[in-house]
Amino acid sequence: MKKVILAISFLSACLTGTLAMAAEAPPPPAIIETWTCNYLPRQDMGDLMRARDYYQRQARRAEVDIGPAYLWSLAKGDLPFDLVWLAPHESMGDWADAMEAEASAKEVVRANARFDDVVDCTARLGTVRQVFAREEAQDNVGGTAFVSALACTLGEGVGPTDVADLHGHIGEVFGGLGDAAPNQSYSMSPITGSSDGPDMILFSVFDDPNGYADFISGLFSNESNASLGRHLDAVADCNIALWNSTQVLETPEG
Length: 254
Prior knowledge:
By secondary structure, this protein is an alpha+beta fold. The protein has helices spanning about 10-15, 45-60, 90-105, 105-115, 160-175, 210-220, 225-235; strands at about 30-40, 70-75, 85-90, 120-135, 145-155, 185-190, 200-205, 235-250.
């Protein structure tokens, strides 16, 4: 089973134009695969990276293009899993092409199976939209980042228009935070999943924990920003977790 996750620069490219004017129709969302995983007994990050290395070698040998990948390791939060992997695709068609390419290469199929000896994962498929981007922020390609994620259950009667209004409010408030704003913020919605899984995941990307601390200070330094918290509470019930993100697969060349 392949374990790959989000490369921020690639996802940003997938979502170019999402912050269009309100009068314009929003572009289609990107597609994202996610895995929530626990390490198996006596397995750790070193074993995971060795499986990753083998997967890369076999994909090159089979001439199968692989997308960028980031690993999120839990820093703070009360969750029943240790890590999350996410794999972005520009469209459902691109996701299907990637699935078929890997399934047709026996070397990659064998390489994916190695991950099952290291981690036990639950796989899901969803959509993802960018709801905010700070213009001067630099994509931290090849390095690390810090992620704040809210897993949310929507309230009774809340629909797509209510969620779109929340996204707009997030963009408005974050846009007023200047250098304290996140680098990027996204909203994920499940296509597949379980009845007890989240309806929406809102996550923001920072350079490091200090960037997140500056964001929290900036967010609560202005009383007018408190309306965003009330808006979120009116739409959804959310659980926050903090993650360390590391790039573990190369960004594909354009």
